[in-house]
Write a structure and sequence with these properties.
This protein has about 500 residues and is of the alpha/beta class. The protein has 3 domains: about 260 residues, 3-Layer(aba) Sandwich (Rossmann fold), CATH 3.40.50.620; about 120 residues, Isoleucyl-tRNA Synthetase, Domain 1 (Orthogonal Bundle), CATH 1.10.730; about 55 residues, no CATH class. The chain contains 16 helices and 15 strands. It has a 4-stranded parallel sheet, with helices on both faces. A 4-stranded antiparallel sheet has the order 5-6-7-8. Helix 7 links the parallel strand 9 and strand 10. The radius of gyration is 28 Å and the shape is elongated. About 0% of the residues have low confidence.
Amino acid sequence: MPLRVHDTRRREKVPFKTMEPGKVSMYVCGVTVYDNCHLGHARCYLAFDLIHRWLESSGFDVHYVQNFTDIDDKIIKRANETGEDWRKLVDANIASYYEDMDALNILRADDYPRCTDYVDDMIRITQDLIDKGHAYQATDGVYFHVESAPDKYGQLTGQNIDAVRSGAGGRVDDTGSGKRDHKDFALWKAAKPDEPTWDSPWGPGRPGWHIECTAMSLDYFGQQFDIHGGGHDLRFPHHEAEIFQGECHTGCSPIVHHWLHNGFVNIDGEKMSKSLGNFWTIKDILQQVDAMVLRFALINAHYRSPIDMNETLLKDAERNYNRVLECYISALKGMTSKSPISLPQPDITSQQPLIKSLAMLEKMGEGFAMAMDDDFNSRDAVAKVLGGVREITKVMASGLDESDKDAFAHYAVDWLEESAGAVLGILPTREFALLEPEEDPRKAEIAPRVEELLVERSKARANKDWAKADEIRDELSSMGVVVTDSADGPTWELE
């Protein structure tokens, strides 16, 4: 199945086509570095990490650019509040960003341009827009005149410019700005006291937000590129402003072949908000949840769908992630040679369990690829991985002879590394996976009593004294002990 993506501009899934065969140019709007990253940032950059990974796994050479917005009203405000130099504030938050993304196993982009390195380009583009009649100088800066290109309005959101005109009633922005129309937006902002400024033909000032991404994306990719991505909230006004600026400046339409936007994150059914007290930074949540568990929770949903982050979701993610990890470790330990024997050809109709299981895993691998080719449907892809984990776990415990088990273990490791590892990004390195976990000191303290209770429980179960067995189970549970029964007897771990 050929790769299909949901293009926000066209409002439907379309075949993925690139300007240059085998190569992908992708620009994703980066963070405004005035504070630590939050859960919404994790959702966005994990979504595009999956897209990045799948495109590369599909054989594309991806040039991925993600900017840092390092001059902005929020940065200036925060620096003034703290008394910190704005440049130091920016540098500290960029370092914090990398820490968060690395913890979540998000692959680095190829380039991370900073807006302040492109001010000259922004000035040049702004002057060109003025010269072409698409922008005008006002007392407080330079504005893009939306009515100069009304046909470009609402391409991503579906807003109707006639309805906007009618609703506005002919009013102009009432904030004291010099813009002629409420729809117009700033390309250049005149200098204000205690703000960083750059010289320009219109006096000292700084660029508007929207022009920054236009300057950087055009510098890297020229007049057209394949993918522009970002959060759902950036469609308007930011991305529509980019369309206005870029297409009117270059005369090229469309500049972006595929617009992709990820969904929001809610907390217990409500939009994440500082005012509601449900605002989580990535660092906050990683103090409570393993980074790979958080990654699993966020990718176990289609990137365009909203996610409701709650305790149940995280517990489910932890359980399923641990199943994947345990299966991977078991397969790694099952590889007893460097040169395994050849496995038989898969056949779903075979009566031999190994041959049938190989066919089922092959089919699930195909299903994984089909899911990712269907607009990067990671939820279905995760389901295929969990199905594969169940099958691998069953086969590894089925009593294969040593050579078959070794060969199957090699196969299982490759299968997991190609899907859960390279694409989903939830597997550790082989070396890390095989490290012995540190023993919880609490386990040693309670071990004698737990072992005693397990013996009593086994006797009770053998005597069919279910009430006694339940009583012992409750006591173990109150100690935080989880018991797993198997043919070899019960094992236990701490919650």
